[in-house]
Structures
1.
Amino acid sequence: MTRQNDIKRISELRSEVSKHNDLYYQQANPKISDTEYDALLSELTQLEAKYPDQYSPDSPTQKVGSDSDDRFPSAPHTIPMASLQNSYQLEEIQLFTDRIDRELEDREYKFDVEPKIDGVAVALRFKDGKLELGLTRGDGKFGDVITENVATLNGVGNLPENWQGTVNGCSHFEVRGEAFLSLSMFRKLNKDRVRQGNAPFANPRNATAGTLKTLDSKIVKERGLSVYFYRLFNCDGSELFETHEQEIAAIETLNLPVNPFFRTTKTIDDIRSVLEQLEANRSELDYQIDGAVIKLDNLAQCAALGSTAKAPRWGIAYKYAAEEVETVLNDITLQVGRTGVITPVAELEPVQLAGSLVSRATLHNWEEIERKDIRIGDTVVVAKGGDVIPKILSALKDQRSGNESEIPQPESCPICNSRTESPEGQVAVKCVNYHCAARLSARLRHFVSRDAADIEGLGGKWIDAFIESGKLTSIQDIFKLQHNELRVLPGLGDKSATRLITGLKASAKRPWANKIFSLGIPQVGITTATILARNSINIRKLEELSQETLEDLEDIGPIVAAEIIAWFSSEDTQTMLSELLECNYLLEAELVPVTTIETFSGLTFVITGTLGKMTRGEAKALIKKHGGKVTGSVSSKTSYLVAGEKAGSKLDKARKLEVKILTEEQLLSMTKTEAVDE
């Protein structure tokens, strides 16, 4: 029973971690702190190590999160852009330096310590003195091309006028850095946005990520993003310097900005001292940091140590504890989301925290309120880690006066007064009225968002105004808006009305994955929507996918599969889909999203062991390209087991079930092609 429960938990964790990857990388809207995320990932890693037969190349433990955006062309990175492993205790830094000491025995080495800015990684290539290409991190192997946008970053255009275009004899080189929004600029932008009636940015990191993915470089320039560079190498991937310290000095000679806080250390005591110094100065910085980066200075030693599947072995990120403050909980307001979930939000006595004035914090649900025994009037401890929405850690019960009041669970919706319910097995309290104005507003905001229908000109202010006036009672009503009635509205005008109608027409041409995401299916982010798009050609084919079929898709476990099935079974969903088909937003026949060669149609493969010419991910992509299906475990339904070196229990099971076994060469021969990139 323990194995069965653990395997179920593996599926749940893969789905949950993938969801949070999607929120962080794709939507720039994280819902949990880095600490909470790393705890989930650590639990998944331990369970996968316990059950090696459950290995999957698609597990989030085997690949980095991706911020790729299909609105931009992509290009390969010269060398992969990996993420450092996170640590939260000084003991983990000690373990890191001990490992370096073992693996670099009898060799001198030193470490560099730099602030870990909570921004967005970028790569810039220069050729003959001019900016040639700008990339995001993407999936680490390929990045989105954002050359015009990175050209607007503060400091990028400061190359010396008398510069001859070479660095250490190299005229074609790459610099990498972290783009960020300074706190002073962040406050200015939010002040302007509020004055203009727009919602303020949640935090500097989210604002940076969204800005770099803006299609208009003029807007990017207006927002005044900055960058600090930390890497410089030849565009053929070779190093130009012996040490990281020399690298930083060379970047400075190019007049490209580097972080002024840069320390070189030799011992663990030196590292601790620098970490303490940086943390003490944290509140004085004009940019957000969530920790420090510690890495070997000698680049040849870095190369010798290499990397794991997800992170380099020559460096580590040390995360500071979330900043905490005390303040008073004045009241509770209730927010209703698009799925009806009612979220209690704490209204706080305003207090400075992590570089911004905080007046609200999430309380998540009533189970948490009861568990922490939080009451209105309490003095509470508020934390803000990783620039996520502030949350209340605890109430200081010894400071109670007796006038505090408990926070009851609502029996009716605060917006439409409909009854509430708590679905079995869930802690959420939901408004049952699908047509609740708050739920409708949230659905519409989601529908028109960038990764969804991407309808320019229909912001939250107008959505709420149209709902209040009765113009919008459903998502479908968006497509009934007319230019003539919009152009006469106060504050809208002819130009804005034209832009809105143009956006409505353009939405019909959105990619199939974005249309799926726009529908607001619970638990389905843009990454999951992309997976669903690869396995369906239109909405009705998607609806026909069974629970079992959905569960077998990568990154979709039983919980997400059940949510999708339940969503399609709703009468309100069917009404919406029918009307969206009628107004040509959803088409009866979407374009087939992935071109496949049907060599392996109807065949199921399992991959095990270490392959020589391909990674497992590349082998999986090859099989899928030829119409086959790849699963993680061997069963009587398995057509072929592809076995590499050190194949274990799966090979034994395949032999027992008389499943056909292929070598890597036989697989390639069957496809009559070479290995492909994932």
2.
Amino acid sequence: MKLKKVLSMVLTGVVMTSVLAGCSGNPEGDAVKTTQLESSVSDNQNPESTEGTKEAAVETSDGEMSEITVILRTLGTVDEAASEAVEAAVNEITQREINVAVDLMWIDSAKYETQVPMMITGNEKMDLMMYTPNPSTTYNTLMAQRQIMDITDILNEYGPEIKATLGDELFKATSRDGRIYGVGNYGPLTFKGMLMVRRDLADAAGVTEKIENASTWTEIKEALKAISDQSGQGLVNVDLNGSVLMPTPVLLAGENFSDGYVYDNLGDSSNMFMANKKSGKVECLYFNDDVREVLKRTYDWYQEGIVYKDAALSKDFGATLLKNGVGCGLITTTEVGGEQATAATTGYDMIVLNPVDESAPMITTGSLTKFGFCVPVTALEPEAAMKFLNLLYTKESGLGNLLSWGIEGRDYVVNEDGLAEFPEGVTADNVPYHIAEFLYGNRLNVTPWIGSDPDVRQIQQAVNDTAEVSPYLGFNLDNTGMEATLTACSNVFEKYKRTLLSGSSSEDFDTYYKKFLDELTAAGIDELVSAYQEQLDTWMKNN
């Protein structure tokens, strides 16, 4: 959207807000609702927490307004007409509080990994962008390509709320040589496995109780086989790699649920490396015996019709497939309190289990390098970009709800339990704007979606405060000088991943898997593992 159009819409929004303020009626029917930073500090919030933001606003209030372009990744296509109102509401806040006009550009996941790198190399204006799990826009990839700025100084000056939230220790995840290059999304920072199955299909197959009481993968296999035989529906892929039983970084090892664990991927977003849980040594994920076991199970289940037959070809995430009536269930990762909100996105009543739920949750580098924000080298207004990001981390600004759920009254309302839900007559199928709570900044600032525990944010914060911190937090695999080898190995993984992770190989598993490992070896995977191990040894010695 052009800036003039944004300004016009903001003025319109201000007028409408002023008019509606004098009218009595249902607040859920209000137009754009924003929160005055100075007057909305709740009773349980520290008023001093907004001091840095207020000072930033004062510093620029008499100067020329800064204009920034912010690139946001979404889970699907965003309707332009609906997003324009969100952008206008965002600008009403940012222009008032920090004297910054924001041009928001939403790009869906499928296009993000190709479009954003092209924008950087094309020197297009973009002042703030997200790093994501998409291979070409991971934190590590952007660092290796030298496409993001050192933000240490502007973070110190313009990011007081961000610094107060993350603290020095968590910034280690996105730092190198003591300098900070990214701001990881904050929220529940530990992971666990989650299995959800459509209750209606389980009921029809007579296996609901069996699933609810299951503690082994054999029991789950038998129940899913019954569902598949009765309905023709199987487990769907969790991601766009076709993965069915490998929800990174959870490893569904062993026969019993209690055998599974969460591994430290050492900040790797290529889905190829890990720190071995027993030895602590760096290894390629696919040479690990536990991983091989999980992939063999996937293959066996696919052959028995338990896995969605087009998982390897799917261009939709699992939650989207389920929402569209495809599949009986999904295995994914979630965090404390995330189960019901995740299940709710499917539109079905789901049976939910946590087959991997470790008693000692761990915060890893990958917790903060999966999604987050960085300033690309093409930025013209890095200071203004940091002011915006700091405001996004400020709960009282309301930006978290705006970007996640849209316009209050139109896209969502807050019920008496303090949870967000669709307004009357609005559903997941016809809501104008609805993204997700985990993509933008500090998730703990976002109103939880209906189905969550009303106290989920306090629970999540408590787990973060007590969780174990990985001994490798702050270590990120450095690909400098090894780009060609990494590309060669990545190409091999790209060639095999969809078939392997979905179990859909037409060849015998052992034969196909050996081909995959042999090609990885020929591409130089051992060289990468050796180099990464040397990096880790040096890092451990110095830290």
3.
Amino acid sequence: MRVLFVLQYPGYLRYFDSVLEALSQRGHQVSVAFDQPHKQPEGLAALESIDGAVEVQRPVPRRPDIWHAVARGVRGTVDYARYLHPRFAQSPYLRDRMRTILPPLTRFLGRWTTTTASRTDRLVRFLLACERAVPSSRALETYLRRIAPDVLVVSPLVTDQCPQVDLIKAARRIGIRSALCVASWDHLTTKGLMRIQPDLVALWNHDQRREALDFHGVVAERVVVTGAQCFDRWFDRTPSRSRSEFCRRVGLSSERPFIVFTGSTISISAPDPEVRFVTRWIEAVRRGPGSVKDLGILIRPHPYNCAHWETVDLSAYPNVAVFPRSGANPVDNDDRADYYDTLHYSAGVVGINTSAMIEAGIQDRPVFTIVDSSFDDTQTGTLHFRYLLPENGGHIQHATSLDEHTRQLSASLDDGQAPSARGFTTTFVRPHGLEVAATPRLVEALEQLAQTPPQVDDALPVRLWPLRAGLWVLAMLLAVADLRQFRKRVRRWWHHVGMAAWQYYKTRRKHVRKWRERREKMARKARKRHHAGGAVR
């Protein structure tokens, strides 16, 4: 079969490179395209390590018709409306982030912070009906017909105002099977709503299945739980160098065990608060009980939140290192080796809210976190973080103060009381068993999807015709308003061009006048010299 993966940007390849490789090795024709090909371009390095042929298609076009503005407005509104549900009442960070994308016509909803579940459901149902009334894009239909895939795979689909909704509509319109592969553990709770349901929704675990059913209204028959394929590479890997060689590489003493602080994305941990917190954390560890105060400390910045660590001076603290200072996204073999060795040789991993805490659990390393007021909104204020807590089957040891955290470190490292992460890994990462990899299961699910009849989009129900007519009028008004704005910009541009031309004309005329005056002056002097010379002769 021919499979087309449409990802938001190249950075998403690290979630699906193993799937692309497995499909290619099984004889399928695999293509990949991006909505934003210039964002995180270093992610393309993942294709170099794939043992197989993967064709990179040209970027996915945006729909050029008058429905573009209406579609973005409807999607931005429903992405905010979902966070008015009481289940998100304690998540102001998620709601505030979506408030910024509200279009002008529905910006009044931003005054609401929460409402009843029934009112939220009615509002979301109306907005989803508006989404259904928006027709498919002919440009995207032409794009898919040119590539002619048997299966279209998209990710993430749930980001705010995501244009991949139009791609699923186009695929359904021309009879191409579609699938959503959820890339990360937070996508179903911290992003937008799944405004359209593909033929297949591939998820990590049963927690995400519950999120898809309860939060996004996905039909249960379309859901398949495969496991987290992006973590398969960490199960069978071995260290690339000895512990002493690794410590020498990062700048730590090999005579003492070390713990790792793993940074988070900039949306979770802003640069200045992260540096202040890490500094307080290092000082607390150095005052810790038992052997804690002698631990080595390795700070591993997040690859897309690392600029502030390049200039931070931690030389006042012995046996503390930052590696790599400029960040490294583990998309090639060398960076993956460094990352694996970092977790493998560590005595424990500390983080705020990052997937590195899951990857450390795969290696059964003790994982710690501190509930700090600097990260209330982006840590305990998110739903996905709660999966890591012991009361929800998680594996992390969380503390409410740095003193409690150092006591936990001492109990884990000195007394050997660290809980095992095997149970969490079995349920969250590989729900079909630790020995059952997720990548083959996802590949089989896509192959089975290719054998099913495609779902062709039916005609718009009669009850939605008035809604489409109203949205068409709105689209025309927005197009006229945009045209007026365009005309205003053109008039303003011509005014600036005219003023510049007039200034140039005046300056040029002044220079010409001066040049003529100078030429006439030189001519008068020449005539005087000529007459004076004639008199003498």
4.
Amino acid sequence: MVPIVDSPRGVRMWVRGLLALLCAVWVWVFLPVLVELKLLVNAASFIPVLAALALIQLLPSRVFRAVLALAAIVVYMLHYFTPPDLTWIAAVKYMAVQWAIDAQSVLVNHVLVDPLQTTLFLFLLAAMYWLVSYTMLRRRLFVFYTVLAVLVLAVLDSNTNVHPNQAIVELLLASVCILGLARFAEIDSLESRLGVRSKRRSSVIRFFIPMAVLVAGVTVLSVVLPKQPAVWANPLQRWQGSGTGASGTGNGQVQQVIGYESNNSHLGGSLLMNYDPVFSVVTNDAAYLRGQSYSTYTGKGWVQSNMVRIPVGSGSNLPQGTNTDFSNLPFDVVKQRIAVLAKNFSANVIFGGYSIQQVTGSGVGNGLYYLNQASDSLFATDFLKSGQVYSVDSRELQDPTQVLTQLESHPNAAAQQGIPPQVAQVYLQLPASLPKQVGALAQKLTRNDSTELKKVESIEGYLKNNFQYTTTDVPVPGRNQDYVAQFLFETQRGYCNNFSSAMAVMLRTVGVPTRWVTGFTQGSQDFNYTGPGQRYIVTNADAHSWVEVYFPGVGWVPFDPTPGFSMTFAQGQASQSGTVPPVTPKNTPQPKPTKTPQLSGSAFSVFSVWPAIKWLGLALLAAFIVLAAVFRRNLNAVRIWRGNQAQALARALRFVIKRLHKQGRLEGRTATLREVAGILAVNDGTAKPGSHAARDSELNVRFVHTAEAAWYRKRPLTEDEVKAAKDSWKKWLKKL
């Protein structure tokens, strides 16, 4: 059996094209699964690469295929990772510098980031495509890889919350089509070589109609048949994570793509940055976009303990309960016009300012919403979709620090009222498995604090000043580890989920009610915007989590303990009517890392990345040497068969004799043609007719007869004889 591009003459081009396309489908099946596992973003962007690989696979030269595949990868990277206003040459230089910087990051900091990360993934994708295309016409090997792929998907189905049932079906259907088409190619090639191939369409129809009926029948049967539930329970279900944190970690994975997630029952793990836009927010006062709040801490993450749904229509005022009402605190009414930009957003949360009062617009959920009054979260009836627009009016707190200080210091302060039982019951909850050292640390930090506000500030300051903010090298808690305890006493590094969870849990241990909140920071201002107000672009990287603390007689007040981030408050220059003058937000989160060095000027020096350039250069040199060796070998094979037929056969024989001599299988430096054929014989007389061994032995005999006819009888050779001699020679080289 031979791969597509090396198949014998006579295989129809449309058959080769279909095999190449099915190979791309076989590889594509895995990409949506990687997206569900949060290991990949925008799988559809790789379709052009797979299409290019399928087209390139039809070329006869391996060297050309390798070069064009490399070109396809470079074009993809230039399209997605370079500024749009650069020329092609400038873009290539820019990308080379980026690769050098990222290579230095790998060598020095042991951190793999984009664009180098995506580049390596594309190389892996191309290698996987080549591997599958290589095995397509090698039936046993292809079946082995297909079974292995199904096993991988089955393991994912059993050990994660991703269930690739559709992927398994698609993979098997593609494999059946590949095996059927490969069989047709084999028969078609044999008929062509024997000169008996029928030119009638009926021969093709007779082959493909039964195969199509079989595939369609099996597919319909698999869909119609009833599906029985699993007989055995999943042994990992007890501690298996089912969701991700506000910054996108979970599923038991070590590394996830940053972004908002609604299920936060299993937190932990490192983050891959993603700056794809999610929202466009037009407002006069930048503010955090509040999403959901969570009340129950499980030791692994956060869940919502109850759901009190209240239907709300567009334009209606939201009913207010004891949870959302805050009194004695200054606030402004903030208006926000929010447009959804994300193409894939798996949440139905209505995001807005601190306390949403009203939602207008029918662009989301046909204008129908429901309020979870227990958590002060507003939801649509379906997931948010790209292009949807809605407007919210929210009450945004002004900085409450001074007012809280005065209230708690007053002898008749409302704080003396105590915590309402309904608040204490839900928002002082702690799991029985929480390590005692968490509470001991909180008691130590607040032992000299006489008011609730001072306790909050003590724990917030401790977290901000003593722990490292990082999105990399953040472990997932083990089976018997507490998420907060691991962060406080072992790793002491993490991102918003770690800091906010630690603050919420520590405050609960000293009797302060808290809830854990997820959403987005205000994003980055779009200075190209010229319309009314100001526009902010919120990306996946702006996904965030923070804490809300309950003050008796006052209500819930937000705090952000993550280093480099500060809670945004209204500026206090507007009335409650909602007429807010344009201002620039005074509190902004830690700026997102950017990698846009200038191609010239003092902002970037090539000496700063010289070590990376040196190692990258050595790697490219090694790759060039390998490609040159492969190219030279192919070039020698081409040169051997040039010119006079008899001389070409002699050169081919000498080439094989050199190989045999190097391997120690030939005592002398010369040998006759029949001696070489005897050494490389694969048929000892026991091979069954029609087997591979019998066909290879037949090729050996044909090579001997062809060479002797050219050398001794001086007879011109036919094209088929030369082709058979080349096939036999290639077989010899593979054996060697």
